[in-house]
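Now for today's protein.

===
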Amino acid sequence: QLQAFGGGLVQAGGSLRLSCEASGITLDSYSIGWFRQVSGKEREGVACISTDGGTTYYRDSVKGRFTISRDNAKNTVYLQMNNLKPDDAAVYYCAVDSTNHNMFIATKHRTSINALDAWGQGTLVTVSS
């Protein structure tokens, strides 16, 4: 089971750190991604990190502002979001998959996004201008 935390209301230019905690699974066996969805739009990939933490991917609009990281000892993944913009407002979800390939193509291209191994519930991020 995955559970995401850390959403909230922040002014544009502010920061939030989202956490994705796992229970019942060991995250060090999984590639992990963060996705977001705005009502009425498709879910989109934001960032992902490989099983060993050595490779990351960010969508262009968040590069340089967001950082994904993992703490396997705490069985938690983080998404540090800095310089938030109104366009970043969405419900953010974490997801895991046992293969790096599946996670990275889902994050980059939405390929088989619904077939990822597990999803957490979302956490709402609101950015005021």
In short: The longest strand covers residues 90-97. Residues 11 and 120 are 25 Å apart (CA to CA). The chain has one helix and eleven strands.
